Amino acid sequence: MEPREGRQTEDKFTRSIENRTSRVPSTTYLGLAIGSMALSAVFKLTRRNELALFVGQWAAPFLIMGIYNKMVKQHGSDASDRYQGDIQQAA
């Protein structure tokens, strides 16, 4: 079964994003999460409650991006690409 054209475009786009983001150290995302929590605390202490809530909610997405970044570094972009590469090397 031949993959559809739309899927190939998505794979190329995803791979290009993952190649760029994998260059970012994983600790960067942790630092951004901790920084957003600290900035949120500062806003809360200065009684800017809405801004404190807004900035404080950035921590979770930064941590999720860090986990995704780590998984891409450890396991690669696409398991099917690695599988195809293994088949080609064996041949």
How would you describe this protein?
With 91 residues, this protein is mostly helical. It has a domain at 26-73. The protein has five helices and no strands. Helix 2 (26-45) runs antiparallel to helix 4 (59-75). The chain is elongated. It starts with a helix and ends with a helix. The model has no long low-confidence stretch (mean pLDDT 82).
Task: Report the major sheet.
Answer: none
Strand percentage lies at under 5%
Ends distance: 21 Å
- The helix content, as a percent range, equals over 70%
- Average predicted confidence as pLDDT: 82
Summarize the helix and strand pattern as letters: HHHHH
Show unreliable segments. none
Q: What is the helix tally?
A: 5
Global structural class: mainly alpha
Features:
single chain, 91 residues, mainly alpha, 5 helices
Write a compact overview of the structure shown.
The protein is mainly alpha-helical and 91 residues long. The chain is built from five helices and no strands. The protein has helices at residues 5-21, 26-45, 49-56, 59-75, 79-90.
How is the topology of this model organized?
Layout: H1 5-21, H2 26-45, H3 49-56, H4 59-75, H5 79-90
